[in-house]
Each structure stands twice: as C-alpha cells, then as structure tokens.
Amino acid sequence: MQAGTSVIKSAVVVRDLGVMLDAQLSMREHIARTAQACFFHLRRLRSVRQLLGRDVTIKLVVALVFSRLDYCNAVLAGLPAATLAPLQRVLHAAARLVNGLRPRDHITSALKELHWLPIAQRIDYKLCLLVHKSLVGNAPIYLTNLLTAVADVPSRSALRDASNGDFVVPRTCLKLGKRAFSVAAPLAWNRLPSALKTMRSTPAFKRNLKTFLFRTAYNTKS
C-alpha cells in the first residue's frame, strides 16, 4: 500500500491491548509468546525454589504465570487442543515446579491436588463469568448487547431452555464464527447447571463455577 511517497507494509502480527493478533486469527503467535514468557518466569522461580517454600512458590506462580495464562483468554475460545497445547504445558511445568516432580512424573494428580483448572476450562470460566456479569449488570454494554436470553425471544419463551436461563446460540457456518463471543459464550453458559445460572452473587458464582468446571475436567465428584 502506498500513501503519497511512502510505502506502507502490512504487518503479519499486530499487538492490541497486549494480545498478539495474526492475519488468520489463529492466535498461535499470541500463545507462543505467552508460553515463552511463562516459561521464562518458571525458570527463574526454579533457581530459587528451595529457598521459597511451597506456599510462596504457589503465590508467585499465580502472580507471574497464571496472570499471563488468564489474560484475555476468552479470545482463545474454540481453538483446538493442539493449538492450546503450549499453554497446557506451561500449566504442567508449574505443577511440577510447585510439587517438586520430575519431568516424567504423572501430572494429573498434582493438578487435582492444587485444584488448578486445565486451559480449556480456564477459558470456559472466563466466558461464563463474563456472561454472569452481563446478567447482573457489571459487564461492558458492548458485551451485553452480544447476548440474547432465550426467554427474551417471544417464539421460544415457553421452551425449557428459557426456564433454564439459557442464551441463544447464533447460527454460523464458519469455524471463525464459532469462536466469536456471541457464539462461544452462550455455548459455554448453556452447559452449566440451572442452579448455577440463577446465582446473582458474583463471589458465590465464581466459587461454584470453578467447582463445576473442576469436576467436569477431572471427572470427579469431590
């Protein structure tokens, strides 16, 4: 592209509010850079792990690593597990660091003991929390306008979905469209139990949402 005498070259990747966006919106560059930053901090923590103790290590992992894993992670909704794999490896490395495990040690029991959600469930957690905040009036209006309750659709107000507190999932034939907040958020929300959807206390909702996603992720009742 040319503007006057200047030639403007298109960028392959751009940064917007700390999120790396590529031309195909594959989010691979963002995931790669996030994983790189997380592993950098994990290596630094590993060098002083014996001096910190387990409790302090957990707090530092949450502050330095999880803050990056969870930042704007709603934009990763709908991505395949293979694309999210680098972030899941970060989570595994963090659990090994905290528990002093070797690279080949089984990791699932450690994640369950730490009560850490896998990456896919962390994304669902963010989506559902945003929907909840929209319901209680604490979300930005531009997000609230993307959601339509089934109960608000006259032709569907008598359906069971309406009484369950579900939201309309817009139809889309595009894979990219399925990753949009207007589609991904209702899909995640509609999978929640009715009792959870009707909660209006945000702290209680967050506690129960994490418990539900934890049980779903690890197929456990405790």
Give keywords.
222 residues, two-stranded antiparallel ribbon, 5% strand, globular
Give a verbal description of the structure.
With 222 residues, the chain is mainly alpha-helical. It has two domains: 2-116; 122-218, no CATH class. The protein has helices at residues 28-47, 49-52, 54-69, 81-99, 108-114, 119-135, 141-144, 160-163, 175-178, 181-190, 194-197, 202-218, and strands spanning 2-3, 6-7, 13-16, 19-22. A two-stranded antiparallel ribbon has the order 1-2. A hairpin with a 2-residue loop joins strand 3 (13-16) and strand 4. Helix 3 (54-69) packs antiparallel against helix 4 (81-99). The radius of gyration is 20 Å and the shape is globular. The N and C termini lie far apart (59 Å).
Describe the SSE topology:
Layout: E1 2-3, E2 6-7, E3 13-16, E4 19-22, H1 28-47, H2 49-52, H3 54-69, H4 81-99, H5 108-114, H6 119-135, H7 141-144, H8 160-163, H9 175-178, H10 181-190, H11 194-197, H12 202-218
Antiparallel strand pairs: 1-2, 3-4
Helix pairs in contact: 1-3, 1-4, 3-4, 6-10, 6-12
Number of discrete helical segments? 12
Side by side, the strands of the main sheet go 1-2
Please state roughly what percent of the residues sit in beta strands, choosing from under 5%, 5-15%, 15-25%, 25-35%, 35-45% or over 45%: 5-15%
Q: Give the C-alpha Rg.
A: 20 Å
Q: Work out the number of β strands.
A: 4
Query: Structural class of the helix and strand makeup?
Result: mainly alpha
Mean pLDDT: 91
- Domain count: the total is 2
Amino- and carboxy-terminal Cα gap: 59 Å
Q: Shape from CA axes?
A: globular
Sequence of secondary-structure elements: EEEEHHHHHHHHHHHH
Helix content: 55-70%
Biggest sheet architecture:
2 strands, antiparallel
Taking pLDDT < 50 over at least 5 consecutive residues as the criterion, the unreliable ranges are none
